[in-house]
Amino acid sequence: MKIVAQFAFHEEKEAKEKLAKLNKKGKANHCMIRSKIEEEIPIEEMPVK
């Protein structure tokens, strides 16, 4: 498996549109997998307690 695109959870509509376009090409079957990915925050932007 290879990641072709990543979308945020609230961008599900855009992800489904991308999936439809990729599957329409017909070269390979693509699927959508939901997963939790930790976002890296630069140290400068981390909140100070």
Q: What can you tell me about this protein's structure?
A:
With 49 residues, the protein is mainly α. The protein has a domain of 34 residues. 29% of the residues lie in helices and 0% in strands. The protein is built from 1 helix and no strands. The longest helix has 14 residues. It starts with 11 loop residues before the first helix and ends in a 24-residue tail after the last helix.
Class by SSE composition: mainly alpha
- Reading the helices and strands in chain order gives H
The number of E-state strands comes to 0
Outline the low-pLDDT stretches. Answer: none
Annotation field: number of helices = 1
Beta-strand proportion: under 5%
Please give a handful of descriptors for the protein shown.
49 residues, mainly alpha, single chain
Provide the fold topology.
Layout: H1 12-25
Could you give a short description of this structure?
Helix content is 29%, strand content 0%. The protein contains 1 helix and no strands.
